[in-house]
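Entry:
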Amino acid sequence: MAAPSLTNIHHYSPTVSDVEASAAWYERILGLARVPAPFPHWGDEEGGHAVVLAHPAGFLVGLHHHEAHIDGSFDERKTGLDHIAFGVASRADLDAWTAWLDESGVPHSGVQDLNEPMPLSTVVFRDPDNIQLELFYADL
């Protein structure tokens, strides 16, 4: 039996240390628009909420605030999320993104063109909580 089909990634939901500061950053840097009402945590409605941001391409980012937040910065070497990658339509879009990140004061890797394990191009940067974000292009 084959797995049922998927259409795309619907949303990405990191826990952040300052939900308002992160929301402002994601709005400014990624061009997301805030959904007006906060979303309660399913099964823990009193324990926090998420600020949800939408992108015109159809995906959402849900930034989670937990009342019982445990301080510390993100480290992809721990069990859990390693990174999230956003696709772009062309290699030239990565150059446009690096110019935008430079203008916005966001440190990044620059465009990395790789041939192994397959031809691809990527730009890596981090959000205010040090969560690794990636812009990705491959001509598949």
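Helices lie at 19-30, 91-103.
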